[in-house]
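Working notes for the structural subgroup meeting. M.R. asked for a predicted model of this chain before we commit to crystallization trials. I am recording the input and output together here so anyone reviewing the notebook later can reproduce the run.

Input as submitted:
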Amino acid sequence: MASAKEIKNRIASVGDTQKITNAMYLIASTKLQKAKQELDRTMPYFSALRGEIKRIFRTVGDIENQYFYPISGEQDVHGACGVLVITADKGLAGSYNQNAIREAQRLMEDHEGSKLFVVGEYGRQYFTAHGVPIERSFLYTAQNPTIQRSREICFQLLNRYQRGELVKIYIVYTDFGGLEASARTVRLLPFHRAQFSSASREKTVKIPFEFSPDVETVLDNIIPSYVTGFIYSALVDSFCSEQNARMRAMDSANQNAQELLDELSARYNHLRQGAITQEITEISAGALGQRRQRQEGGALS
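Returned structure, recorded in token form:
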């Protein structure tokens, strides 16, 4: 059985750990709020881009473009698929990283010959350790998603797509949908026209728009910006999901630490009470012995 000193040292150690997990909880909460505010400030622009793409297809419905499936519908294209997977730079976030990695592995099994693109140190180390070849690893931290970094990722992926090295591009990220965030797979390219159709009835364009120099060039310039926005939103969604998962993990760790502290405190108090009781018993027994000795000495005299 552990001594009172050992239990006291264990209580101090658990208390120090609880301070760390509580600090990590507060840091994750602050980062989450900051990332959400940044996303809220930038997303209206990309929502406007989506609206303009929808307007183009309402105006010119029969346009063909390299970023879209043909008008006849989706075709079974053959070739390598690009898989962009977004993970964190570190663990301590519950199942956040493993869920994204499992989703990426499932997607790569379904698309043989896929080329892997990774954001996040955790994903880089995992795939390297398991012998999975990485086509391109974006060597900047996942902790600071920015528009500029989204443009760099978009540039690399679109270059390969335009050269025919990739026939499809998928992105695997964690959708921040509240408490239960889940890993999600989205096909970035090619688009289907249905993605830019609205369920609501929109006004028919009566006066044709003028496109300069032509509608194909306009789309070729808009789509990279739209893809950049989608990648940025995926990076921020993943970052928010990571912080949310870390908050939940740290909150659970705090609760477990508190339960352990309560148990250790009870054991420590029990040992202290036992030690105090033993000391009182020994003092009482000693006093009783001295009293008997005095009484016996008095009787002999």
